């Protein structure tokens, strides 16, 4: 099992040099939680960056006097026999 002295060594948030301070379990726990949160957030952002998503939307805009705007679609259908 891991001793509390080894866990205290993980304390990242010491304000003064290591020789002049004492590590605490609270600081080590905070360091571990912060590291896990940063790794989780980095992983989520990397996953979102690497995910390919395509969206298609068509929005019909009305003219200023309320008339409808005419839109023509040219659709080609290619069939292979």
Automatic annotation (TrEMBL):
Which InterPro entries does this chain map to?
Answer: Erv, Erv_N
- Give the CC-aspect GO terms: COPII-coated ER to Golgi transport vesicle; endoplasmic reticulum
Organism's domain of life? Eukaryota
Coiled coil start-end: none
GO-annotated molecular function: isomerase activity
Per UniProt, residues of the Endoplasmic reticulum vesicle transporter N-terminal domain are 8-76
Membrane-spanning regions, if any? 20-42
Q: Name one Pfam family in it.
A: ERGIC_N
Q: Which UniProt keywords apply?
A: Isomerase, Membrane, Transmembrane, Transmembrane helix
Q: What is this protein called?
A: PDI-like 5-4, PROTEIN DISULFIDE ISOMERASE 7, ARABIDOPSIS THALIANA PROTEIN DISULFIDE ISOMERASE 7
Q: Which organism is it from?
A: Hibiscus trionum
Organism lineage? Eukaryota, Viridiplantae, Streptophyta, Embryophyta, Tracheophyta
């Amino acid at each position: 099992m891991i001793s509390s002295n080894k866990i205290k060594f993980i304390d990242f948030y010491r304000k003064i040099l290591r020789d002049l301070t004492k590590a605490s379990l609270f600081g080590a726990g905070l360091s571990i939680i912060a590291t896990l949160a940063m790794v989780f957030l980095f992983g989520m952002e990397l996953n979102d960056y690497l995910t390919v998503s395509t969206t298609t939307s068509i929005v019909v805009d009305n003219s200023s006097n309320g008339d409808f705007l005419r839109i023509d679609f040219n659709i080609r259908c290619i069939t292979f026999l």
